[in-house]
Amino acid sequence: MAEDPADLTMRAEAIEAKFDPGSDLVPFGCQEFENLLGHWGASTDQPSVLFVEQLLQAYPEAKVVLVERNPDRWMKLYLETVITGSANLFVLFAAAIVPGFLGWMGYQTDQIARYYFNVESPKGIRAFSGRRLFFDEWRQKANSTYLAHNEHRQAHYSSLTFMMGVDPSVNT
Prior knowledge:
Elements: H1 5-19, H2 30-37, H3 45-48, H4 52-58, E1 66-68, H5 71-87, H6 89-97, H7 99-116, H8 134-157, E2 161-163
Parallel strand pairs: 1-2
């Protein structure tokens, strides 16, 4: 996600095009994903996980492994790394005064929280004046969103999924 700052802009556009009904952007198709991902050998984690269906349509011959992790372990690590890291006041402050790279990462993280995890509270400095803090709401919704994502994958892509730490041949 953070290797190439230009990718952050395109990923933010892809998220907005897919999830923001008021956006003028067209959802990404094969050519747009090729522009974004064509120079990479693989795509993992956020925000790629938001585009499973679109990526499978754009790359029908791709080798795909969808990994389902233990939800409790996933939640612990997600809270410690993504949410707590995003909530760090230094990161919020630095992104506000130096919007470039950190700003785009913060913006993309905000998009993921709002559109994928359905966080409605305001973010950043405004978050501390709202009824419920942005990051508290994100923490509250993270586990149920992850479980719903896994249920959707199992219903539609079970042949591509295996449990992390389990021999994939057992899960066929």
